[in-house]
Amino acid sequence: MKQETNNISIIWKSEYNINNFTIDREHQDLFSIAREALNTSKLKNDKDQIDKLKKVITKLFDYVGTHFNNEQKYMENISYPDIEEHKFLHKNMLNMLTNLVSELNTMELEQIQKSLYNFIEEYFIKHIILEDKKIQLWNTNLDDLKKNFGWKEIYSVQNPAIDAEHKKLFDIAQEAFIEVEPQQKAQKIKNVLTKLYDYMKTHFKHEEEYMQEINYPNIKEHKKLHHKIIEDINSLVRRLPSLNEELFEKELAKLIDIALVQHIIQEDRKIITWAKSI
Protein backbone atom coordinates (compact mmCIF):
# COMPACT_ATOMS: atom_id res chain seq x y z
CA MET A 1 0.00 0.00 0.00
CA LYS A 2 2.79 2.44 0.90
CA GLN A 3 4.61 1.70 -2.37
CA GLU A 4 1.47 2.54 -4.36
CA THR A 5 1.24 5.86 -2.57
CA ASN A 6 4.85 6.61 -3.39
CA ASN A 7 4.36 5.99 -7.08
CA ILE A 8 1.71 8.72 -7.31
CA SER A 9 4.25 11.39 -6.43
CA ILE A 10 6.64 10.76 -9.33
CA ILE A 11 4.11 11.35 -12.09
CA TRP A 12 4.92 14.52 -13.99
CA LYS A 13 2.17 17.15 -13.78
CA SER A 14 1.80 20.30 -15.84
CA GLU A 15 1.72 22.30 -12.60
CA TYR A 16 5.45 21.59 -12.22
CA ASN A 17 6.35 23.61 -15.34
CA ILE A 18 8.44 26.73 -14.77
CA ASN A 19 7.78 27.96 -18.35
CA ASN A 20 11.30 27.43 -19.64
CA PHE A 21 11.30 24.79 -22.37
CA THR A 22 14.78 23.40 -21.69
CA ILE A 23 14.41 23.22 -17.89
CA ASP A 24 10.89 21.74 -18.08
CA ARG A 25 12.03 19.10 -20.59
CA GLU A 26 14.96 18.15 -18.37
CA HIS A 27 12.67 17.92 -15.34
CA GLN A 28 10.40 15.55 -17.28
CA ASP A 29 13.42 13.47 -18.31
CA LEU A 30 14.50 13.30 -14.65
CA PHE A 31 11.03 12.13 -13.63
CA SER A 32 11.28 9.36 -16.24
CA ILE A 33 14.68 8.23 -14.95
CA ALA A 34 13.40 8.39 -11.35
CA ARG A 35 10.41 6.20 -12.26
CA GLU A 36 12.73 3.78 -14.04
CA ALA A 37 14.92 3.58 -10.93
CA LEU A 38 12.02 3.02 -8.53
CA ASN A 39 10.40 0.42 -10.80
CA THR A 40 13.74 -1.41 -11.12
CA SER A 41 14.18 -1.35 -7.35
CA LYS A 42 10.92 -3.30 -6.92
CA LEU A 43 12.10 -6.24 -9.02
CA LYS A 44 13.42 -9.49 -7.58
CA ASN A 45 16.51 -9.35 -5.41
CA ASP A 46 19.21 -10.93 -7.53
CA LYS A 47 22.59 -9.79 -8.84
CA ASP A 48 21.39 -8.90 -12.34
CA GLN A 49 18.61 -6.67 -11.02
CA ILE A 50 20.89 -4.98 -8.49
CA ASP A 51 23.43 -4.31 -11.26
CA LYS A 52 20.66 -2.88 -13.42
CA LEU A 53 19.51 -0.67 -10.53
CA LYS A 54 23.06 0.63 -10.01
CA LYS A 55 23.25 1.62 -13.67
CA VAL A 56 19.95 3.51 -13.46
CA ILE A 57 21.06 5.36 -10.31
CA THR A 58 24.36 6.29 -11.98
CA LYS A 59 22.35 7.52 -15.00
CA LEU A 60 20.22 9.63 -12.65
CA PHE A 61 23.34 11.06 -10.99
CA ASP A 62 24.89 12.04 -14.34
CA TYR A 63 21.72 13.67 -15.63
CA VAL A 64 21.07 15.56 -12.38
CA GLY A 65 24.54 17.10 -12.59
CA THR A 66 23.99 18.22 -16.20
CA HIS A 67 20.56 19.62 -15.37
CA PHE A 68 21.79 21.59 -12.37
CA ASN A 69 24.48 23.25 -14.52
CA ASN A 70 21.87 24.26 -17.11
CA GLU A 71 19.48 25.53 -14.45
CA GLN A 72 22.19 27.63 -12.83
CA LYS A 73 23.05 29.23 -16.19
CA TYR A 74 19.36 30.07 -16.61
CA MET A 75 19.23 31.68 -13.15
CA GLU A 76 22.30 33.74 -14.01
CA ASN A 77 20.71 34.88 -17.29
CA ILE A 78 17.59 36.19 -15.53
CA SER A 79 19.56 37.61 -12.54
CA TYR A 80 17.67 35.43 -10.09
CA PRO A 81 18.32 37.01 -6.66
CA ASP A 82 18.41 33.76 -4.65
CA ILE A 83 20.83 31.96 -6.95
CA GLU A 84 23.48 31.31 -4.29
CA GLU A 85 20.96 29.68 -1.95
CA HIS A 86 19.68 27.61 -4.87
CA LYS A 87 23.21 26.53 -5.80
CA PHE A 88 23.75 25.43 -2.21
CA LEU A 89 20.66 23.20 -2.42
CA HIS A 90 21.98 21.73 -5.69
CA LYS A 91 25.32 21.01 -4.04
CA ASN A 92 23.67 19.20 -1.13
CA MET A 93 21.57 17.06 -3.49
CA LEU A 94 24.61 16.13 -5.58
CA ASN A 95 26.48 15.18 -2.39
CA MET A 96 23.61 12.91 -1.40
CA LEU A 97 23.64 11.19 -4.78
CA THR A 98 27.45 10.95 -4.75
CA ASN A 99 27.31 9.17 -1.39
CA LEU A 100 24.59 6.83 -2.63
CA VAL A 101 26.54 5.92 -5.79
CA SER A 102 29.78 5.36 -3.81
CA GLU A 103 28.02 3.04 -1.33
CA LEU A 104 26.00 0.99 -3.82
CA ASN A 105 28.39 -1.96 -3.80
CA THR A 106 28.10 -2.35 -0.01
CA MET A 107 24.32 -1.95 0.27
CA GLU A 108 21.55 -4.52 0.27
CA LEU A 109 18.66 -4.03 -2.15
CA GLU A 110 16.33 -2.86 0.62
CA GLN A 111 18.83 -0.20 1.69
CA ILE A 112 19.23 0.98 -1.90
CA GLN A 113 15.44 1.20 -2.28
CA LYS A 114 15.08 3.28 0.88
CA SER A 115 17.92 5.67 0.03
CA LEU A 116 16.71 6.07 -3.54
CA TYR A 117 13.15 6.80 -2.53
CA ASN A 118 14.26 9.30 0.12
CA PHE A 119 16.29 11.18 -2.45
CA ILE A 120 13.60 11.20 -5.15
CA GLU A 121 10.66 11.99 -2.88
CA GLU A 122 12.12 14.16 -0.13
CA TYR A 123 14.67 16.12 -2.09
CA PHE A 124 14.41 15.93 -5.86
CA ILE A 125 10.62 16.27 -6.33
CA LYS A 126 10.17 18.76 -3.50
CA HIS A 127 13.05 20.80 -4.91
CA ILE A 128 11.27 21.12 -8.26
CA ILE A 129 7.91 21.90 -6.68
CA LEU A 130 9.12 24.36 -4.07
CA GLU A 131 12.44 25.85 -5.17
CA ASP A 132 12.33 25.74 -8.95
CA LYS A 133 8.82 27.23 -8.93
CA LYS A 134 10.30 30.27 -7.17
CA ILE A 135 12.44 30.87 -10.25
CA GLN A 136 9.31 30.96 -12.42
CA LEU A 137 7.55 33.33 -10.04
CA TRP A 138 10.54 35.66 -10.00
CA ASN A 139 10.61 35.73 -13.79
CA THR A 140 6.85 36.37 -14.17
CA ASN A 141 5.51 39.91 -14.12
CA LEU A 142 2.82 40.88 -11.63
CA ASP A 143 0.05 41.30 -14.23
CA ASP A 144 0.57 37.74 -15.47
CA LEU A 145 0.65 36.43 -11.91
CA LYS A 146 -2.69 38.12 -11.19
CA LYS A 147 -4.20 36.86 -14.45
CA ASN A 148 -3.27 33.23 -13.76
CA PHE A 149 -3.98 33.33 -10.06
CA GLY A 150 -6.94 31.44 -8.62
CA TRP A 151 -8.46 28.02 -8.07
CA LYS A 152 -8.20 25.53 -10.93
CA GLU A 153 -9.81 22.11 -11.15
CA ILE A 154 -6.38 20.48 -11.54
CA TYR A 155 -5.83 21.42 -7.86
CA SER A 156 -8.70 19.16 -6.77
CA VAL A 157 -7.79 16.35 -4.38
CA GLN A 158 -11.17 14.68 -5.10
CA ASN A 159 -12.43 15.28 -1.57
CA PRO A 160 -15.37 17.76 -1.60
CA ALA A 161 -14.85 19.11 1.93
CA ILE A 162 -11.11 19.70 1.53
CA ASP A 163 -11.55 21.09 -2.00
CA ALA A 164 -14.18 23.57 -0.74
CA GLU A 165 -11.80 24.89 1.91
CA HIS A 166 -8.93 25.13 -0.58
CA LYS A 167 -11.18 27.15 -2.90
CA LYS A 168 -12.08 29.46 0.00
CA LEU A 169 -8.38 30.10 0.66
CA PHE A 170 -7.90 31.10 -2.97
CA ASP A 171 -10.93 33.40 -2.80
CA ILE A 172 -9.49 35.16 0.25
CA ALA A 173 -6.04 35.52 -1.29
CA GLN A 174 -7.54 36.88 -4.51
CA GLU A 175 -9.01 39.79 -2.57
CA ALA A 176 -5.48 41.16 -2.21
CA PHE A 177 -5.39 41.85 -5.95
CA ILE A 178 -8.65 43.81 -6.11
CA GLU A 179 -8.02 47.45 -6.98
CA VAL A 180 -9.02 50.01 -4.33
CA GLU A 181 -8.33 53.69 -3.69
CA PRO A 182 -4.68 54.41 -2.72
CA GLN A 183 -5.61 55.45 0.81
CA GLN A 184 -7.44 52.15 1.35
CA LYS A 185 -4.65 49.82 0.17
CA ALA A 186 -2.82 49.43 3.49
CA GLN A 187 -6.02 48.51 5.32
CA LYS A 188 -7.08 46.16 2.52
CA ILE A 189 -3.78 44.30 2.71
CA LYS A 190 -4.02 44.02 6.49
CA ASN A 191 -7.58 42.68 6.27
CA VAL A 192 -6.70 40.11 3.60
CA LEU A 193 -3.70 38.80 5.53
CA THR A 194 -5.75 38.53 8.72
CA LYS A 195 -8.54 36.62 6.95
CA LEU A 196 -6.03 34.37 5.17
CA TYR A 197 -4.17 33.62 8.39
CA ASP A 198 -7.36 32.85 10.34
CA TYR A 199 -8.95 30.67 7.67
CA MET A 200 -5.74 28.81 6.94
CA LYS A 201 -5.46 27.87 10.63
CA THR A 202 -9.09 26.68 10.55
CA HIS A 203 -8.50 24.65 7.40
CA PHE A 204 -5.33 23.09 8.77
CA LYS A 205 -7.19 22.12 11.96
CA HIS A 206 -9.89 20.36 9.91
CA GLU A 207 -7.29 18.65 7.72
CA GLU A 208 -5.34 17.42 10.74
CA GLU A 209 -8.52 16.06 12.33
CA TYR A 210 -9.21 14.18 9.08
CA MET A 211 -5.68 12.78 9.04
CA GLN A 212 -6.17 11.51 12.59
CA GLU A 213 -9.48 9.88 11.65
CA ILE A 214 -7.88 7.86 8.84
CA ASN A 215 -4.64 7.19 10.79
CA TYR A 216 -2.56 8.91 8.14
CA PRO A 217 1.01 7.66 8.75
CA ASN A 218 2.77 10.92 7.84
CA ILE A 219 0.63 13.21 9.99
CA LYS A 220 3.55 14.54 12.05
CA GLU A 221 5.49 15.58 8.96
CA HIS A 222 2.35 17.12 7.45
CA LYS A 223 1.68 19.14 10.61
CA LYS A 224 5.22 20.53 10.41
CA LEU A 225 4.49 21.74 6.87
CA HIS A 226 1.33 23.44 8.12
CA HIS A 227 3.33 25.15 10.84
CA LYS A 228 5.89 26.34 8.27
CA ILE A 229 3.17 27.88 6.09
CA ILE A 230 1.71 29.77 9.07
CA GLU A 231 5.20 31.01 9.94
CA ASP A 232 5.71 32.18 6.35
CA ILE A 233 2.51 34.22 6.54
CA ASN A 234 3.68 35.77 9.81
CA SER A 235 7.01 36.58 8.19
CA LEU A 236 5.26 38.35 5.31
CA VAL A 237 3.19 40.36 7.79
CA ARG A 238 6.35 41.46 9.61
CA ARG A 239 7.96 42.52 6.32
CA LEU A 240 4.88 44.39 5.16
CA PRO A 241 6.02 47.88 6.29
CA SER A 242 9.21 47.58 4.22
CA LEU A 243 7.57 46.36 1.00
CA ASN A 244 6.02 48.53 -1.68
CA GLU A 245 2.60 47.47 -2.96
CA GLU A 246 3.82 45.70 -6.12
CA LEU A 247 6.51 43.78 -4.28
CA PHE A 248 4.06 42.80 -1.58
CA GLU A 249 1.54 41.51 -4.13
CA LYS A 250 4.25 39.48 -5.85
CA GLU A 251 5.43 38.09 -2.50
CA LEU A 252 1.85 37.16 -1.63
CA ALA A 253 1.35 35.44 -5.00
CA LYS A 254 4.58 33.52 -4.42
CA LEU A 255 3.53 32.54 -0.90
CA ILE A 256 0.17 31.25 -2.13
CA ASP A 257 1.71 29.37 -5.05
CA ILE A 258 4.39 27.71 -2.95
CA ALA A 259 2.54 27.32 0.33
CA LEU A 260 -0.91 26.48 -0.96
CA VAL A 261 -0.87 25.29 -4.57
CA GLN A 262 2.25 23.16 -4.30
CA HIS A 263 1.26 21.93 -0.84
CA ILE A 264 -2.05 20.72 -2.30
CA ILE A 265 -0.37 19.09 -5.29
CA GLN A 266 2.39 17.35 -3.40
CA GLU A 267 1.16 16.74 0.14
CA ASP A 268 -2.64 16.88 0.38
CA ARG A 269 -3.03 14.44 -2.51
CA LYS A 270 -1.02 11.93 -0.48
CA ILE A 271 -3.68 12.09 2.25
CA ILE A 272 -6.46 11.30 -0.20
CA THR A 273 -4.42 8.52 -1.83
CA TRP A 274 -3.89 7.00 1.61
CA ALA A 275 -7.58 7.31 2.47
CA LYS A 276 -8.56 5.48 -0.73
CA SER A 277 -6.10 2.67 -0.06
CA ILE A 278 -7.30 1.70 3.43
From TrEMBL:
The record's annotation in InterPro entries points to: Haemerythrin_Fe_BS, Hemerythrin, Hemerythrin-like, Hemerythrin-like_sf, Hemerythrin_metal-bd
One MF annotation (Gene Ontology) recorded for this entry: metal ion binding
Q: What is the lineage of its organism?
A: Bacteria, Pseudomonadati, Campylobacterota, Epsilonproteobacteria, Campylobacterales
Taxonomically, the superkingdom here is Bacteria
- Name of protein: Hemerythrin (Two domain)
PANTHER family noted in UniProt: BACTERIOHEMERYTHRIN
Among SUPFAM superfamilies, the record links this protein to: Hemerythrin-like
Q: Which UniProt keywords apply?
A: Iron, Metal-binding, Oxygen transport, Transport
Q: Which residues form the Hemerythrin-like domain?
A: 22-135, 161-274
